Each structure stands twice: as C-alpha cells, then as structure tokens.
Amino acid sequence: MLNLISEWLLSNKTELLGAILGIIYIFYSIRQSILTWPTGLVTSALYTIVFFNTKLYADMGLQVYYVIISIYGWYFWLKGKKSEDKSTLPVRTTNKNLWFKLIIITILIYIVILMVLLNYTDSEVPFMDSLTTALSIVATWMLAKKYIEHWLIWIFVDLFSSGLYIYKSLWPTVILFLVYTFMACVGYIEWKKDLKSQL
User: Fold this and answer.
1) Residue 55: how many other CB atoms lie within 10 Å
2) What is the C-alpha to C-alpha distance for residues 52 and 61, in angstroms, rounded to an integer?
3) Mean pLDDT, rounded, for 182-192
4) CA–CA distance, 190 with 102 (Å, rounded to integer)
5) Which of 44, 41, 40 is nearest to 59 (CA)?
6) Confidence band (pLDDT; 50, 70, 90) for 97?
7) What confidence tens digit (pLDDT) does each residue in 18-50 have?
8) Cα 82 to Cα 80: distance, rounded to the nearest angstrom
C-alpha cells in the first residue's frame, strides 16, 4: 500500500505541488496580500503542464493567461490607485455598465474558445472547458482590479470545475477545487467586511 502511494505521489508530483501552491494562492488572495501574484504565477506554470498532459487545452491556455495576468495584477496591486488613508488598493463593487461589458466579453471569449476546441483539438469536454475558461479569464481580471464580485464567479467556476476534474480523474485537483469553492466563500465574506469598513 505504501509503495502504491509513493508511486502515485512520484508520478503526480507536478499536480500535487500545483494543488498545494494553489491553496496558498487563495489564502493570500483572501488576505489581499501581494504574495497572491507570485504564488499564482508559479501555480499556473505547473498547471500548464498538468492540463497539457490531460488534454484539457482550454484550461492549459487559461494557465498561460494566468501567468500574464499575475504579472499585471502584481503591478496593479503595487502601483494602482490607492485611497489617501490606505497603502493598499481598495476593494470595490462592479457597476451595471461594467457588468454588461463583462457579460458580453465572457460570451465572446466562450464562443472563440469553443470554436477552437471543437475544430482544432481532441478535447473530450469542449463546452464545459470553454465555459469555465471564459468565466475564469474574466474573474481573474476582476481580482486584479479588486472587484469583490469575482469571488461569486469563482464559487460557481470552482464547484463546476471540480466535477470536470472528477471526470478526468485529477483527484488532487478535485480536492483543490473543492477547497477553492469553500475559500471563495470565505474570500467573499472577508472582502465584504473590508468593503463595509470603507463606508
């Protein structure tokens, strides 16, 4: 039994390390720590490999996007517009106009990714993969800008994704995404408290 476990750990070390760093990334994100971004960058680099090996191509492309947005978020959280009494970028809410734009952008991203997966890959789950990827792209941008509602999108995406990863037998990632779902709920509550403290 021990031999079987150690064999599994060795053959899945990239996924396991990515899962551990992913949990640390969410913890930092909840606390609004600048360490969110370098941790997220390394996590995404590891998951690029995992998703390539399991033919989840949209998720793989998403990880490449995460690497880029991590650099942007890192810069924006350091240099973005801060309130006079705070040294950190404040949490904010998404207005109706921005919601409308984000919904349109999400639909367009979904269609583009779906067409690519249907026509140019051997993806087994193109519709689900495209949906989670499109929503994740938008939610990560919202995190970089500190819009509180990104947590609500993550609650849906993480729960939905855990089902997708069960189908692909990515068990450490299933656990990671269930933890992500719980932590996204906590993140929303914590950021809501911070938002109220600004009033």
Assistant:
1) 15
2) 9
3) 95
4) 24
5) 44
6) very high
7) 888 988 999 999 999 999 999 999 999 998 988
8) 6
Task: Indicate the average pLDDT of the chain.
Answer: 87
Task: Summarize the confidence of residues 42-69 as an average pLDDT.
Answer: 87
CA 134, CA 179: separation in Å to the nearest integer? 21
Contacts of 191 (CB under 8 A, 6+ apart): 30, 32, 91, 148, 151
CB-CB contact of 93 with 21 (8 Å): no
Can you tell me the distance from the alpha carbon of 167 to that of 25, in angstroms, rounded to the nearest whole number? 25
Crossing angle between the packed helical segments 13-30 and 2-11, to the nearest 10 degrees: 70
CA atoms of 4 and 23, how far apart (whole Å): 25
How far apart are alpha carbons 78 and 86 in whole angstroms? 12
* Axis-axis angle for helices 13-30, 36-53 (nearest 10): 150
Return the structure tokens found at 90.
């404040």
Q: According to the model, what pLDDT value does residue 188 have? A: 96
